Amino acid sequence: SLTLEYGAHRIGKRTDQMMETWRNYGLGQFIHWGVYALTGGHWDGEYYSGAAEWIRSWDKMPKDAYDQLYKSFDPKNYEPKAWAKQAKEMGAKYMIITTKHHDGFSLWPSKYTDYDVTNSPYGNDIIGPLVEAYDAEGIDVYLYFSVMDWSQPGYRVSLETEEDRTAYEDFKAFTRNQLIELLELYPSAKGLWFDGTWDEAWKEQAVFADELEKEMRAMIPGLIIGSRFRPDDYGNRHFDSNGDLMGDYEQGWERKLPNTYEDTKGNDWDAVMTVPENQWGYHSDWRGHVKSSYELIEMLVKSVSLDGNFVLNFGPDGQGNIRSEEAKLAKEIGDWMKVNQKAIYSCGYLNWQKQDWGYYTQSREDGKIYMVVFNQPLDGKLRVKTADKVILDKVYPLENPGMILTPELIQKNEYFIPVIMDQKWTSPYVIVVESSSTDEDKNGGFQKAK
Ligand SMILES: COc1ccc([C@H]2[C@H](O)[C@H](O)[C@H](C)N2C)cc1
User: Distance, CA 94 to ligand 1 centroid (Å)?
Assistant: First the structure.
């Protein structure tokens, strides 16, 4: 393997408490909010078919018109406490907020740019009250920050000339200033979710990025930073030139999920997901497929079953309203979580053979196994093929622990579990499996399967 000075600084998962907490979240909320929300994905009566938060890059969007939008940013209906309560009801354990997206508009009072909320009619800090509201609900806050910043004169896609390099040094200093400022203003933040780090110019900044990451980690011990921040000695991101994961978890799963445990390479990871196919910021006219809560619950369960976190995106409108479609999803997901959260929180991958009826998760706290059923077989029998030397001690519906189900042995380590046919399951349901190992432990009894 290559000797890398700026590659992965750790092989394998972080095992400290803050990362354990992160690993056990299961469900998160992404919030994309900024001046792009004022356009709702339209300009001058025309429909923008791209991602609404990218409308500034649309050829039909005059750049100066976009850059004046902040003079209309005055979200009368912004209610951070209501947003936090809704997220709590949904069952989100963490929230990632766009402090600054690619356009550079800063949602906090920044000393380093005039393109921020203090120079909008709204005038006040957006981020601070949001952090307080989510902290008060016990939902951990993470700060999304786009390195790419179209508003900054020093920003460059690539460094071709000496002038580029000189300008980029200013941009690097600006970027560091804003990040230090964010961590000083919001020290309860548990981590940063970086974006906009694919430019050639940034990919040459292995030294700068590494020093900055170290500086940020020193400011908030345990700070969690994913694989989208640093480039390595050769400009590789997410995985360094030896194939080792950069940062604390893999951030590559954007609007897509891994299919198998092998796809995750055994790393921690999050999957960030839009409700439409590709809209993060507010678009007033969602076209194409809009995901149902059933689909999103399956993605959540699949993510947890493969040791990841699922982060669902919300895009509030220009007045600070959470749109009705998202409010409905938050309610429906929350209703499901209220009944089935034990199969999600502090759960992860179980190495039993994947079956067609759904997904296994296993509690990292007590080893209980959860069978989350999406596709109930017509004969009401769930096939279960356990790992070797496992016996099933007790099986029952999570919703009705008194209803003991008796597995039917098919062959060694393989059973049918008869679910209740007269129980009309109308949404994904969970069967709990308490199991133990047939290995004799030192005093001849059975130990709980770990
Ligand atoms: C070039 O393709 C991109 C670039 C950036 C994105 C941004 C989205 O605006 C959103 O912030 C998402 C999390 N991020 C990857 C999406 C697609």
Answer: 20
